[in-house]
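Writing this down once: the sequence line spells out the residues, with the fold written below as integer tokens. I am pasting one below:
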Amino acid sequence: MTLHELNTLPKERLVEELTRCCGSSAWVKKMLPFFPADDLVELLEDAEEQWWKCREEDWKEAFAHHPKIGDIDFLKKKFASTAQWASGEQDGVNMASQKTIEALAEGNQQYKDKFGYIFIVCATGKSANEMLENLQARLLNDPKEEIEIAADEQNKITKLRLEKLLA
């Protein structure tokens, strides 16, 4: 899709496309006044600025729109509209050993038990082992620090998805 095509979508369709990039309804609503957008760079800057104006519950809503890292079956079922993007984002998991996948699953559960939401990481370009190391390191964070890290990871994912949308 081109930026012109995105700019000229009916509002309902624009909301759908933005939601594919970030599952926070507050963020999507905050983004609507920025259309039509002049260029991708400005759009990415606006997206980031509006993301950081969202509240913690808005961030958690966005997190809930992601499959768990390594949960390919869940990815296929629940996130058909973003499955192609998320699958590509998680290519490093597709090449992982069963032991690593199991460790990711266990770590994801520990993370969710501790923080109350799934582990969010911008997985593009990361191997399963790198994601596992990242997960294990972040399990040591306190909740206040971790929500900021997770929000930053979501911001990276959103910007990548906006770029993919306009590729």
